[in-house]
Amino acid sequence: xxxxxxxxxxxxxxxxxxxxxxxxxxxxxxxxxxxxxxxxxxxxxxxxxxxxxxxxxxxxxxxxxxxxxxxxxxxxxxxxxxxxxxxxxxxxxxxxxxxxxxxxxxxxxxxxxxxx
Length: 116
What we know:
4 helices, extended, mainly alpha, two-stranded antiparallel sheet
């Protein structure tokens, strides 16, 4: 069950301009930063300090930031375009997969010499 949370901010009329001009912009920027931080991909591992009682945190994480992207992939141009078209077509069929009761996921096995 999801829960919707919100805050209501009430201000005096004489402070309206100050709040709308600076404070609200600060709040929006801070909220955006929180949202971006939550969207970062993280790799979690078991915290070895947990076993020795040094910390109460059983998991620790590092930010997953890998320089390799699909754009830097060494692959034949026509095959790359074919994969992109397949991904785009697949992404448009989410409702179909839901309707037929299948998992909406797709995987690709790319192989070749290291670095390609």
